[in-house]
Amino acid sequence: MRKTKDNIFTERLKINNTALAPLAGFSDASFRSLSQNMGAGITVTEMVSAKGLEYNNTATKELLYINKDEVFTGIQLFGSDLSALEKATKMMNETDFRFIDINMGCPVRKVVKNGDGSALMGNIKHLYDVAKTVVDNSDKPVSAKIRLGVDENSINCVDAAKALEDAGIQLVTIHARTAKMMYSGVADREKISEVVDSVNIPVVGNGDVNSVEDYVNMLEITGCDGVAIGRGAIGNPFIFRQIAEYNNTGSYSEVTVNEKISCMLDHLDRMLEFKPEKVCCSEFRKHFAYYTKGMKGAAKLRNDINSVYDIDGLKNIIYSLGE
Question: Whole-angstrom Cα distance, residue 277 to residue 281?
Fold first, then answer.
């Protein structure tokens, strides 16, 4: 029987074992706070460059905004330069983020070519050094996100998780694909169960969770402590509410059109708290496309919304979904 250490993540997962996985271009404060309001127990920022923080990059600073409604949000750092990670970690000690998460799983070429993200899975020694540097300089708990390995011939997630635990990492999230797979193919949940059995820290499973049924399947196959939902939550933060309903009652309700309209308006208002009107109108288009996928008459409205640059016009289009 695996014994889980008593830490802040253990306690949080007992309350709610779902997490919003970090999503580049989506996981801003508005979407994180909305997801927590829907029931997500843990949320994480888009990945933030340690070097970007070191050099006081303007775009990087914009990723650090945290909404007053966010209860349990961590900042996800990425990088492989130990000096930059040390400085970035110390900077994060002065923020309101509850924890630091280290990205060791991003498979995007521009990240990997610099030795960051999933490239660290190819060098367990340096992966350990990165984790130890952040842990030793952080006043906050530290977690990490990894993949199964670089490719199908180098599956080493168990070794990586053990190294992370030895470095002082208190929770590990595993995307059940290799870096080479990117986001294609089928997530191999069986491999997550091997990690669960090999470490004494909480393990969160991630990959292909798009419904309550997928959530249940992830828990049953892996025995993991929590489930992180990424792409399955875009346009569908209701999944966190449905999972909470299921855990409490054994069933869950479907999402109505009026609920979608109300959620979109809430999402937009949260975005307006920290972004200019025109920026909100532009950025909300991608969310609108996901929210309205499959809805009757939505295709025309998705075209109409591309020419709207004021909030009232955008809200009128959202309201029209209920007509």
Answer: 6
Selecting among 106, 224, 263, 281, the annotated active-site residue is 106
193-205 pLDDT per residue, tens? 999 999 999 999 9
Q: Output the six-digit token pair for 145.
A: 């996100």
Residue 142 has pLDDT above 60, yes or no: yes
The string of pLDDT tens digits covering residues 23-80 is 999 999 999 999 999 999 999 999 999 998 877 766 677 788 998 889 999 999 999 9
Q: Could you write out the three-class secondary structure of the chain? A: CCCCCCCHHHHHHHHCCEEECCCCCCCCHHHHHHHHHHCCCEEEEEEEEHHHHHCCCHHHHHCCCCCCCCCCEEEEEECCCHHHHHHHHHHHCCCCCCEEEEECCCCCHHHHCCCCHHHHHHCHHHHHHHHHHHHHHCCCCEEEEEECECCCCCECHHHHHHHHHHHCCCEEEEECCCCCCCCCCCCCHHHHHHHHCCCCCCEEEECCCCCHHHHHHHHHHHCCCEEEECHHHCCCCHHHHHHHHHHHHCCCCCCCHHHHHHHHHHHHHHHHCCCCHHHHHHHHHHHHHHHCCCCCCHHHHHHHHHHCCCHHHHHHHHHHHHC
What CA–CA distances, in Å, run from 287 to 24, 228, 236?
13, 19, 10
- pLDDT for position 299: 84
Please, are residues 235 and 290 in contact by the beta-carbon 8 Å criterion?
Answer: yes
CA torsion sign for 220, 225, 230, 234 is positive
The pTM assigned to this predicted structure is: 0.94
Q: Is 106 a catalytic residue?
A: yes
Nearest to 173 by CA among 20, 307, 297: 20
